[in-house]
Amino acid sequence: MGDERVLVLMPTGRDGERTRAALEGGGLTAVVCADTGSLCREIAAGAGTALLTEEALVGSGNTLQEALRSQPPWSDFPLVVLAREGAADRGLEIREAMNATLVERPVKIRSLLSVVRAALRDRRHQYAVRDHLAERERQAEALRESEDRLHVALRAGRMGTWDIDLATMRMTCSDSCKANYGRGPGEPFTYEELTAGVHEDDQELWRGVVEDAVARSGEFEIEYRTLWPDSTMHWVHVRGNCTTVAGRRLLSGVSLDITGRVLAERTARSGQERLRAALVAARMVAWEWTPADRKLHVSETAADVFGLPAGVGLTGIDQGLALVHPEDVAAYEATYRDAIERRGSYHIHYRLVRPSDGRVIWIEERGTAVFDQPDGGVRLFGVAADVTERKRSEAEAIQLGERLRMALDAGGLGTWEWNPATDEMTVSARASEMCGTPVGGPHGREQGRRMIHPDDRERARRAAEQAVAEKADYDIEYRLADRPVWVAAHGRGLYDATGNLVRVHGVVQDITERKRAEEEAVRMAERLRLALEAGGTGVWEWDIVTGRIIWSDQVHAFYGMAPGEFDGTLETFTRHLHPDDADRAREAIRASVEDDIPYRIEYRIVPKGGGLRWISTAGRVIRDAGGRPLRMIGATSDVTDRRLTEDAIRVSERRFRTLFDSMDQGFCVIEVTFEDGRAADYRFVELNPAFERHSGLSPDLLGKSIREAVPGLEEFWFDTYGRVAATGEPTRFVHHAAPLARWFEVYAFRLENPDRHRVAILFADVTDRMRAEQELRDQDRKKDDFIALLAHELRNPLAPIRNGLQVIRRSDERAARERSQEMMDRQLTHMVRLIDDLLDVSRIGRNKMELRRERVALTDVIASAVETAQPAIEAAGHELSVTLPGRPVDLDADLTRLAQVFSNLLTNSAKYTHRGGKVWITAELHGSVVSVSVRDNGIGIPAAALPTIFDMFSQVDRSIERSTGGLGIGLALVKGLTEMHGGTVTAASEGAGSTFTVTLPVLASKPDARTEAPPAIMNGESHKILVVDDNRDGAESLSQLLEVLGHEVRTAYDGIEAVTAAQEYRPDVILMDVGMPRLNGYDATRQIRAQDWSAGVTIIALTGWGQEGDRKLSKEAGCDGHLVKPVSLPDLERMLGELHRAAD
Fold first, then answer.
1. In this predicted model, what pLDDT tens digit does every residue of 723-740 receive, in sequence order?
2. Using CA atoms, how far apart are residues 54 and 81, in angstroms rounded to an integer?
3. Residues 942, 789: Cα–Cα separation, whole Å
4. How many CB atoms lie within 10 A of CB 40?
5. Where is the Response regulatory domain positioned along the sequence (predicted)?
């Protein structure tokens, strides 16, 4: 028991020592305490794990209960109480007061040990459950802390995310979420559609759970059915939470399609039900028992198979042994004890006496003894089947076989063999003696013909020719020519693939005595008939001439008739044949009578009282000397049980073979070879079809060894399978096989006799999974680095902005205030650019980025990029060289986005080149494409980093990235934008310096020059402007800026105020925020547009949402324009100017 010790609290020293000795004799450690004080000291020192005491020391009002409650974690430790005989009520009181087990005196040592061990096991289980729950709670806490970092993992796990604005009931959800409800990426999916798709039987449950979560602003979790647009039903698991963010009540959560899991659980339950049905149908009993406590658990079929009286169950092995026939008990006990010692399997047949009716039945039992790690002991599992009928059939078959052998010996049969190719006939000594020919002398067909009596030769010739022509048996009786002897000859031909006769084997018998003693033969036949009936086999005789049939009493019983009830007619016999077998049975009789084919058949009959039985019957036609049939005699036996057993075996075999052939995992059986006690090799005994796909090895491995197939395989595989073969302990593991370059998840267990060293292996190729897990770990690390750098990059501009605000607030010097404003504008531009890059990468990854393509000159793109990157290049003291083609190059591109590609590459070169370095940008025309390379003489890129340089969050050196402000998204953005323009980008580095090359398609010819209108700007007129934003600071700061520009401005802080203010103020322009409480910007715009006076009002949506779908929503609501926060003054002036020009 390891560190587990039992504390014994007994004031009487003698009783305590006796108890201690009993416990230690059973392998337990015991400490005797004379009073509760010494007991508590032992507990405080951590000395015990269970307590054994007397009834008088426990219960209400006793100091022991209070003492234990003050000693956590012993407040719920197991307590075993020795009580006086008949103290049931007292035991109930003790159990209610404490975690106690009552044992009535007198107490047997074995029972006491069993109770104490059970208490210790219960405590270990409770502690394991508590530790497991604590670990689960810690894991749940860790999971909650990292929820914001799991977006990539959610997508990888096909888990969708969603958010519902409870004010507008507008739902946004991920593509994975849409997929869980049968929608495609980009397909609109609203909350109303989600609710309408809930299965009608789950609607009430869904509404109740969601409404409850909203009412208490708490979490919820639900599994329900949903109908997809294609009318298929799926199960989803949804978990969500109702929260308030920035004044908005949101219902957010995740969803997961669990249809596969639900179906798998249903399949598992169906499998268990089929197993129970199979046990009942096969009259088998499944059992389990432990030698330590001799407790026995049996399946519900035990009552029927073992003949247990009503209300009586089997709970102990001693009850089971009491059913075993007294003469078989010793052998049974020796068998299972041997299995326990070997930790192996056993197979035994024994007799059992059924208590309900006293019948003795035969039981076939198979069991296995296994080491039970939690208990430290052995547990036996197995099945027992009633094989009484099979035993009876086997005994009858042995008896009949022995009688047949004796009959052949007594009949004096001789054997012969004829080779048609050489015309050589070989006969046995008995046949030579019988026919009067020299032993070993030459024989041929002609010599054999001359031995036959002249009157019988023609008949014998026709019989032989007919047998060859029909490939049938040769069977004839004839007289010998030169001696008064009758013989019966029987032969069977052997034919080659083309149907030619190659050999004939046969027997010959002297039947002279039979002819002379016909009466004696009849008496012998009668005795044989009686013997067959005594063995459960009936005999019959059919007089073919008169048509009368005679049945023995046993055959009457088969047909459900009393002896003598059968009327002896063929019509009555055929009327009891099963309709599906009647024609076949009649044909067998006809073939035997007319074609002399042996009559041997199995068919079904319908007895007189109903039901169904399988009958096996065989017979022979007796003919006269001229070959005319006289009568037919035979034997019949009931083979119903055998046929049912055979059918069950065939079904079981088909199921196993179907599972074996169709299972997705690889499966094989190997035989391990040992040398000097160590596994040296193993060969393949059986492979399933999936073996090749999972292992990559040829299915021709059957019979070959693994060392032949995979030289250099690690010793781990031999040691592991050798250990399973030697110990019988199954194992489950994941390991890499270097020669195969694959990871495998393996479950291995031993099969059959341990001496054969056969191991079954169920395995799967998990190489992709292991690679994906490693990639996920790498991505998770990159994500953490990215989040840390992003936080750093977002904080960096905040410090100078705050400092600039202090300068503006406290300094009266105009120059200082202007410098601070310029600095703050730069830092704000940096933050906006950073956020824009993040949004751009996200849009590209979700295919949401839209390019505004037009014909642009490459020189304009390069000029714009150089202009953007020039400050960074000049600040680092670099020299920039620009080389462009000698003739104009036009591209079909978005000038802003394409310039962003080259400005990012130029900025990268400026960052990663030592001060005073050189940067080159060179464009070369190659037919229909142009290649633009950005090269520097900076620090370069390690070769190992080149394959992933364009991946999201990819960073060459984290220390450098931190010092230069790199987030690892710039090159990902470059790659995405380049590919959207139909181009490619590559990176190269030879240690020092790096080169990035962008290749783009060029336009073939240039269209006529067209004059573009200059960008419109806001004219110098003063306008009445209404600013609407629930962020008061944002609304007031924008108002102040517009007032500085000479406009008349008013503000409103929600949608309702906006409608009222517009009605009263009648502004020229309304800058409308979208997401606001009480009434959102869309609805406010709709109410304003419903007024006649709003026709000349310009309404511009001002929001943080900038996707194309958001722009569409604002336009549908009635907005004239859409600007994304933070809005710059030039953008605002440009849009107002454009709207003003359009109005003119």
1. 999 999 999 999 999 999
2. 5
3. 21
4. 17
5. 1024-1140
Q: What is the pLDDT of residues 1095-1124, one digit of tens each?
A: 889 999 988 777 778 888 999 999 998 888
State the DSSP H helix or E strand holding residue 422, giving kind and residue range, or none if neither: none
158, 178 Cβ separation under 8 angstroms: no
Query: Which DSSP category does 76 fall into?
Result: G
The one-letter amino acid at 397: A
Which residues lie closer than 8 Å to 943 by C-beta, 6 or more apart? 989
Give which of 143, 152, 175 is closest to 162, Cα–Cα. Answer: 175
Question: Most confidently modeled of 12-21, 323-332, 524-533?
Answer: 323-332
The answer to whether residue 1011 scores a pLDDT higher than 50 is: no
CA dist., res. 1133 & res. 134, Å (int): 61
Q: Which domains does the chain have, with CATH numbers?
A: 5-143 (3.40.50.2300), 147-257 (3.30.450.20), 265-386 (3.30.450.20), 411-516 (3.30.450.20), 519-645 (3.30.450.20), 663-765 (3.30.450.20), 850-1001 (3.30.565.10), 1024-1143 (3.40.50.2300)
Could you tell me how many helices (H) and strands (E) the chain has, helices first?
Answer: 38, 42
1118: number of Cβ within 10 Å: 19
Say if strands 629-638 and 613-623 run parallel, antiparallel, or are unpaired.
antiparallel
Give the residue from 883, 942, 950, 885 showing the smallest Cα distance to 918: 883
Least confident of 212-216, 394-398, 573-577: 394-398
How many Å apart are CA 244 and CA 143, to the nearest integer?
A: 21
The overall average pLDDT reported for the chain is 80
Percentage of the chain with pLDDT > 90?
A: 25
- At residue 705, the pLDDT reads 92
Distances (CA, A) of 987 to 947, 990, 995, 1039: 9, 11, 6, 48
pLDDT tens-place string over residues 281-301: 667 888 888 888 888 888 888
